[in-house]
Amino acid sequence: MSDTLNLESLTLRLRRFPETQQSELIAWDAADELLMLNALPQVNGQLLIINDHFGALGCAAARLNPIWVNDSFVAHQALKQNLDLNGQPQPDRCLADLEPFEEQIDQVWIKLPRNLRYLEYLLDWLNGHLPQGTTVVIAARLKEMPTTLKGVTEHYLDDIQPSRIRKKARLLSGKTSGRRARSPLVLNWQAQGTDFQLENHPNTFAGQKLDVAAHLMLNQIPTGHRRIVDLGCGNGILALAAAKANPDAHILAVDESWHGVTSCQANLARALPQAQFQVLWNDCLTDLDPESADLVLCNPPFHQQQAITDHIAWQMFRDAKRTLATGGRLRVIGNRHLGYHIKLKRLFGKVETVAANAKFVILDAIK
Ligand SMILES: C[S@@+](CC[C@H](N)C(=O)[O-])C[C@H]1O[C@@H](n2cnc3c(N)ncnc32)[C@H](O)[C@@H]1O
Question: Does domain 187-366 have CATH number 3.40.50.150?
């Protein structure tokens, strides 16, 4: 698949990050193209770009020095890679989350997130911080627009105008209204069957209730370990369980979602002394010292943005192997059909089944 986007007078080279063997996956989509064609010529001042998956929009608008906000650590790396590929400068502000801006924002572009509660959070924030009447353009492919989107956008935005459909994508342009969220967007709940109280910022994985796989994993936390990593920690539910089962262990929790690490930080800080844990915003275990852990717990993701893919799980398993000391254990949960045992066997040589039910399997790989 080509990595070159040609759109009227715009030509960009764009690659996904990390690169994947799935050749049908490219680094931009028809919704990005619509923003470049319809919205970019209308920008007359400071542009704010939110949730630009692989930096295509950041590259297209680079000469405008946009403020670029993305919850995903990996997306920040993708932006940097693609700006370099096109000889473009890095925007002055690449942020993990919205924060008050001194200058007036002319236009906001939001690439529709998969998680509508995160969209609500973004729109609520914009309504609370930008003057009423600021233009907000939401872009997505039609198949990614749920029926509930209409209610959300109508609550937060005025004068909503849908664009014409092009290549099965559409823009929804509206104006900030000042209307705020009707209920709290940071959710607090107790994880089912545990005494863990969890704070969940809006873009945190399983932020509304415990993930089924995480729930199963809670009964299978090994003991007797001193250096434990929760890889892809989300709200930190596995890290909390690991700390409880291994009271003398140091816990390192890692996620690429800023809202994930924000939630995890709050949840671990409530349960543990600061010296006993660290929470990192990172791409898997990049730059971690080799042989620095003796247990890695992992409930891997099986999609990146909208695409179903196993390359992040692969990267997590490889990074776990590098980070584990000899004799260290990687404990993974996954859907049976994902075939993680084959991958782990290839990497570690030997894999053991710890527990299984009709849908999930928990596996151990020892280095
Ligand atoms: C299936 S969820 C598990 C979350 C939590 N551990 C649980 O069991 O509920 C996978 C997590 O991996 C994170 N993730 C995805 N890609 C990642 C990457 N490249 N590096 C670190 N974390 C990543 C996601 O943000 C998500 O929180």
Answer: yes
What is d(CA 176, CA 191) in angstroms, rounded to the nearest whole number? 35
Judged by phi (left if over 0) then psi (alpha if -120 to 50, else beta), residue 251 lies in beta
When mean pLDDT is compared across 14-18, 91-95, 174-178, 233-237, the lowest value belongs to 14-18
Nearest to 77 by CA among 65, 94, 102: 94
| CB-based contact 163:173 (threshold 8 Å) | yes
Say what the pTM is.
0.97
284 lines ligand 1 (CB under 6 A): yes
H or E, element range at 230: strand 227-231
pLDDT at 311: 84
Element (H, E) at 347: helix 340-348
- DSSP class of residue 365? E
Cα–ligand 1 centroid distance for 232 (angstroms): 3
The answer to whether 84 and 94 have CB atoms below 8 angstroms apart is no
* 122 Cβ inside 6 Å of ligand 1: no
Task: Say whether 267 sits in a helix, a strand or coil.
Answer: helix
Q: What confidence tier does 337 reach under pLDDT thresholds 50, 70, 90?
A: confident
63-86: average pLDDT: 98
Q: Report the distance separating Cα 342 and Cα 288, nearest Å.
A: 25
Domains in the chain: boundaries: 4-176, 187-366
Cis peptide before 301 (omega within 30 of 0): no
- Among 212, 219, 255, 332, the mutation site with the greatest number of ligand 1 atoms within 8 A of its Cβ is 255
Indicate the class that CATH gives domain 4-176: alpha beta
Rounded to an integer, the average pLDDT of 136-149 is 98
Q: Are 220 and 176 in contact (CB under 8 A)?
A: no
Nearest CA among 322, 333, 259 for reference residue 291 = 322
